[in-house]
């Protein structure tokens, strides 16, 4: 995974409630690999927290099409939709 560092920081920021920072990290990961389900899913959660429900739902749906079990990777860190 090309954007592993970005995804890791994004998850940390989500846990800390730093949704804007999390979105930025997931955005960078998605630029490196537009098909990275962790980047898409994390960005989707951050977008929803920031009030962009439609965009967030779209990212989450895209991530789940790529990896139907993606939510489990985030739930292990205590991060839920």
Entry keywords:
single chain; 81 residues; mainly alpha; 74% helix
Poorly predicted runs: none
Distance separating the two termini? 22 Å
Give the helices and strands as they follow along the chain: HHHHH
Tell me about the biggest sheet? none
Would you write up a description of this structure?
The chain has 81 residues and is mainly α. It is 74% helix and 0% strand. The mean pLDDT is 95.
Outline the fold blueprint:
Layout: H1 4-16, H2 19-32, H3 37-49, H4 53-66, H5 70-75
What's the gist of this structure?
The protein has 81 residues and is mainly α.
